[in-house]
Amino acid sequence: MAAITPPPSRIYLLRHAEAAWATPGQRDFDRPLNAKGYADAELIADKAADKGYRPDLLLSSTAARCRDTADAVHRAMGSTLELRFVDELYNASPDIYLEIIDAQEALGSVMLVGHNPTMEQTLEALIGHEALHQALPTGFPTAGLAVLDYDSELTGWQLVDFVID
Length: 165
What we know:
With 165 residues, the chain is α/β, with parallel strands linked by helices. The chain contains five helices and six strands; from the N terminus they run βαβαβαβααββ. Strand 2 (57-61), helix 2 (64-77) and strand 3 (82-86) form a beta-alpha-beta unit. The radius of gyration is 15 Å and the shape is globular. The chain starts with 9 loop residues before the first strand and ends with a strand. The mean pLDDT is 93.
């Protein structure tokens, strides 16, 4: 498991919602959400808000599909939620995701909106291989939100909820 210790004491990992296929000549980076993806992004954002999940900071990849997903979260959780777009979250390794989380030392909670397989690998680094496969036997779905809390008595990060649309 990763050696990130609080703060933050809560981490939210949100995989972007379903993206459209690239049109001829379109870069992967520029693919927006498809119609299902837009609906799923709104649903997952509303479900998270209804459960009282609200990070102190929302960090999103600058890729179009992540921006679209993050915008839905921002709308659902209110305009006072600080939203930042981070270029390094696109095509990043799990180590980069973990470094970005670890750098948020002045915050109680942080949400990352990013990509697979990095999102799943980051979750695995935090909770371990067995816990990941017990919780997500078929992998990290699009518009899936992992909620992790740090438990010093259990010596690490625990997946406390996984929200899907």
